[in-house]
Specification:
Distance between the termini: 58 Å
Structural class: alpha/beta
Helix content: 25-40%
Strand content: 15-25%
Strand order of the largest sheet: 6-7-9-8-10-11-12-13-14
Radius of gyration: 21 Å
Shape: globular
């Protein structure tokens, strides 16, 4: 390594273990300034030290010299630079963004912070920021809390926004043989709220997380304020020819499946356009670091299986249950979503006529692909809960609003 620059010394000196304090683990971060050099920082026992851990760095963070300079001068600049694409964070977002938050110099209870919370069901990893009414954000299948970083930052000026790694994903524990269905995840989230001392929260969910948010609202309506559902995974209404076979297939086979990193990457990256750059690259990294563990594979297969097997009809079927939803809800759909077709909006309007719906020109992850529009819509929707207006507004016929702002 070349001689370390002044900005690196400043970052290391202001490392705050209260923001990212994994005292029982050793983490290594490699910081890169293109054409100038790369330096490693070891995080251990509540301290940051310039030097090598002797192992593969957990996270790689790269940025130009002027970007590092702004980060030293402004406590908010590091996270802003990452979200704007001026900083690249690869491999492990939990470690990389945790390091940026811990060395930002930001203070006060509203600053971004990472921690783990133990519940009866699992140890859950969180990132949160802000102060105000609490909001819990729940990620999708194969994703982590990192997919909600733009939301955590974007809502933090008005809400205490918490993003969680569901059991089986990211940096949360991965119990073997857990159900990993909507009911299991909903119970895990309720246990988290109890551990945090939160009686009632707004919920945001993307994909699988949207299905989990709905399950919480249906089972525990007294614990839920409003729902913002981003391309939620809903029970299939069409025939499911693979259902009989999937009911016989055990997801625990993922524990013994051979999954060499090179082979899995070669399969996954071509399936994701732009997977070598920006948020898509970080998202693939997050998927791989969970999937490449046996317990993570088993959890992924179990959750995917239950999405497909989610019963749509009958007394306990999803769609009849959805019609009983009491919470005010905003459904956000992506016009280019290949996983959850926008045609579901019609079925939602029939089942929950008081719900509002929004179309955006994006794919399956609106909070990443269209963060400004998504955050603005969520913030405005949740802010209504503080007044007497929401009930009168939600009683109107649902509006499907396109991203350009025209009523559908």
């Amino acid at each position: 390594m070349s001689a370390s620059p002044a900005w690196l010394g400043t970052l290391v000196a202001r490392y705050d273990p209260g923001v990212f304090g994994e005292r029982d683990q050793v983490r290594c971060v490699r910081l890169v300034e293109p054409d100038q050099g790369a330096w490693e920082v070891v995080l251990a026992e509540g301290r940051a030290t310039i030097g090598s851990s002797g192992s593969r760095p957990h996270a790689l963070i790269a940025g130009e010299a002027d970007t590092w300079g702004r980060i030293v001068a402004d406590p908010q600049a590091a996270i802003d630079a990452y979200l704007a694409g001026r900083l690249s964070v690869r491999r492990n977002l939990h470690v990389g963004v945790g390091f940026l938050a811990a060395t930002s110099g930001a203070g006060g209870p509203a600053r971004m912070r990472f921690r783990s919370v133990s519940t009866r069901r699992a140890r859950l990893s969180l990132v949160e920021a802000g102060d105000g009414p609490p909001v819990l954000a729940v990620h999708g299948l194969g994703a982590t809390k990192g997919s909600f970083l733009p939301t955590v930052v974007g809502l933090s000026s008005r809400f205490r926004t918490i993003a969680v790694d569901l059991p089986g994903f990211g940096d949360s524990s991965k119990p073997i043989a857990a159900a990993y269905d909507a009911s299991f995840f909903a119970a895990a989230c309720i246990e988290l709220l109890d551990a945090l001392g939160l009686e009632r929260v707004h919920l945001i969910g993307n994909s699988l997380g949207g299905r989990v948010a709905l399950e919480i609202a249906l089972r525990h309506p007294d614990r839920v304020g409003r729902l913002a559902l981003l391309a939620p995974a809903l029970a299939w209404r069409r025939p499911r020819p693979w259902a009989p076979l999937l009911r016989l297939t055990r997801p625990e086979l993922g524990l013994v499946q051979l999954a060499p990193r090179g082979v899995v990457e070669a399969i996954v990256r071509p399936l994701v356009p732009g997977a070598d750059d920006g948020w898509r690259a970080a998202g693939v990294d997050e998927f791989l670091r969970t999937y490449l563990t046996p317990a993570g594979r088993a959890a992924f297969y179990a959750a995917a299986r239950h999405i497909y097997l989610d019963e749509p009809h009958g007394k306990d079927g999803f769609w009849p249950r959805l019609a009983t939803l009491r919470a005010d809800a905003l459904f956000v759909w992506g016009r280019r979503d290949r996983l959850v077709p926008i045609a579901f909006a019609r079925h939602v309007a029939n089942a929950v006529p008081h719900a509002r719906q929004l179309e955006l020109d994006c794919g399956h992850v609106p909070q990443i692909e269209r963060p400004a529009q998504t955050n603005a819509a969520i913030c405005a929707f949740l802010a209504e809960a503080a007044s007497d207006a929401p009930r009168a507004i939600s009683a109107r016929p649902p509006r499907v609003v396109r991203s350009e702002g025209e009523a559908a």
